[in-house]
Amino acid sequence: RAQTDPVLQLEKINVSFDGFRALTDLSLQIGVGELRCIIGPNGAGKTTLMDVITGKTRPDNGRVVYDQDTDLTTLSPPEIARVGIGRKFQKPTVFEALTVFENLEIALKTDKSVWACLRAKLNGEQQDRIDDVLKLLRLGGSRQRTAGLLSHGQKQFLEIGMLLVQEPHLLLLDEPAAGMTDAETEYTAELFRSLAGKHSLMVVEHDMGFVETIADHVTVLHQGQVLAEGSLRQVQANEQVIEVYLGR
Ligand code: ADP
Question: Taking every annotated instance into account, which residue ranges of this chain make up the domain ABC transporter (predicted)?
């Protein structure tokens, strides 16, 4: 399959809350294997956009086409997760009382209850998948550690790992580097660049330094619409973008 095929196409999406338009005729395409950053001021519609993709918010109209033939607006949030879309919210939400390994185990066996899941034995392939993710997220030394004792950055990595064991095609990440140390942010950038290609990533981010290190393609949202799209350099030179960010 060509690298340029879209993994996701949003077509003329409208979302309003009590008459307030959060997204207006929003159209957007993400290519297979692409690492896209979504930026824009507060209230621009970035969270609503993620909510529409994951089925948390139903658009008033428009289509969200995944992998060229699945209209996500007809699916429930769990069904959307199962087609291969993983989302990470800004705050890490891990099972604090369980070990790092158990957290990954539960994420991998999403179809079972927590306890049924911890009782069920992993097969060799699942074991390998968890080991690979532990190594990738640099959590190998912490596998038996209680997740609640991890640093904030390690919890963020663990949560990314919980998504990765499910082998999603498309990852949606909300400010993944928020609250991380410089070294952790640097590793997150390296990690995302290595995930792109195999996975498609959509990253909502405020930190322009981080955006600069990860994305070749940036979409600027403003008042529920796409204001500009292109390389970070291109959008930063765009007069309208400058106006929106500097309030001139
Ligand atoms: P961003 O993530 O870019 O900061 P949001 O998608 O959270 O923007 O919000 C876009 C706009 O929609 C904001 O003006 C916000 O107040 C409004 N909004 C978002 N969710 C709701 C809701 N559930 N009810 C009413 N207004 C909402």
Answer: 8-248
